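Bit of a strange request maybe. I'm writing a small parser for structure token strings and I need a real example to test against, not something I typed by hand. Could someone generate the tokens for this chain?
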Amino acid sequence: MQSLLLRNLKFTIPTALVFLALGYIISIPMSFYLDAYAAKWQFNLDHSGLRIETERLDTLRKFQTTVALGSAILGVVVAQTTFAMCIFVEKDDYKSEG
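Reply from user aminoacidic:
Good idea to test on real output. This should exercise your parser:
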């Protein structure tokens, strides 16, 4: 039987990465609500002749990073909760068999 730590890591790391990717994907449309001008500039939608302040881009990137990392943290919480519940179920099954 694999160690508990290894099983936990095999479950938590992929879950956190999936939530991180989902968080970044969600942060892209949210960026247009935060600052549509900076989002258009960042994603090269149409910036011919436009100038933008780097502070606006930095604020936009900070927002995207916060949303993505918050989602990753949520993924870790979900994975840990699910893992703990699976361990308790396995423990109860083991007791009832033995």
